[in-house]
Each structure stands twice: as structure tokens, then as C-alpha cells.
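Recap from last week: sequence in, structure out.
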Amino acid sequence: EYDGERNSEGERHGRGKARLPNGDTYDGEYEHGFRSGRGTYRFRSGAYYTGEYLQNKKHGQGTFFYPDGSKYEGDWVNDQRHGYGEYTYANGDTYTGEWFNHNRHGQGTYVYKDTGSKYVGGWVNGNQEGEAEVIHLNHRFKGKFLNGNPVGRGKYVFDIGCEQHGEYIQSEQDKGEEEEEPLLLAAPKWKASEITKLTLWTPHGENPPSP
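Predicted C-alpha cells:
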């Protein structure tokens, strides 16, 4: 069903409301028969999107409310979360930063609601990867991440005014000869090397220029 404006060719064009065969509804702008411009699309599942469209695709600025209570507010390209945006998860966690092809990708900040901890750094295809800082209530960790786990050299900085340097080492798990199961990687173990006063430090390990 469609109720709205049409152009001389009879195409949906201008403002209109539509009810789709599957029960979804759209209320917004059309161009030459396509959803284009601003509009609100409500899914039968309870999810809805309000924002910009281009030729039936979510494209531009828009906000999507998911059935589980989570929501994404930001850039869309060709129906995908792409560009810059903020996602609020059902448990209250938030991610603010860059998106690429629907995934967290680039630089972004993830805030854990329960603990107040923050991950600030790199993301690749939805996973924590690259240089990052994890900020807790009274200390922080600076280093590198791979597949969501810290890896290699890094340091913990404590608010009382000292640092603990060390590295994360991937612990191997014992495996019997017969086991063909893929190796379940245990969480990397932190191996501390020294405790120092606060210093300037870069994850590359170069010495920074003296101030």
C-alpha cells in the first residue's frame, strides 16, 4: 500500500507512506520510485531506522534502533555502518569511532559500562588490534593488541606515580598427540620486567626525544 505523492510518470516521488508486503512500513521521501532523502523505516521485528536514504539503501546520516535495545547513530554507506558513528550496546557499553563495511575498524573508543574501563585505540574488522591504551579506574595499560588481546611489550601506569614495564606472552597449552582439536589460545600472560618512575614511552620502543 502506498499513500503519497507521485511524479508525472506515476512513480513514487516526494513525500509518502508505504506498507510493505512483509509488514514493514516506511514514512518519508521518495525519488523516482526509490526511498531517497529522509525517512523512517519500521521493521515488523520492532527495529527501526530513521535517517537518510539513497535509492532504497541507508546512506548518509542515520540512527538504527535494534530489537535488543542497542542502537547505532552515525554514518551509513550503501546500507552498511561506514564512516564515523556511535554504537550503544544492549548492556550499556558504547563504541565511538570509525566503521568500515559494518564493522568497528580504524580508531575508536570502547567504554565498558560495568567497570567504567575504556579501550582507546585501533580496531580491525571488529576486533581490538593495533596500538591502544586501556584506561581503568586507577591505572592504565599502554601497548599493542591483536585479535582483542594484548600482545608483546607494554606498560602499566599507576596513578600513584609509577609504571610497571613488561610484555604479554602467549602461553602454549599442552596438547596430546592424538588431539586434532584446534589449539584454544589461553589468555596471554603478563610478565613484568621492571618498575620505574613515570616516563615518556612509545609502543615502538624508541626513546622519545628528551623534553
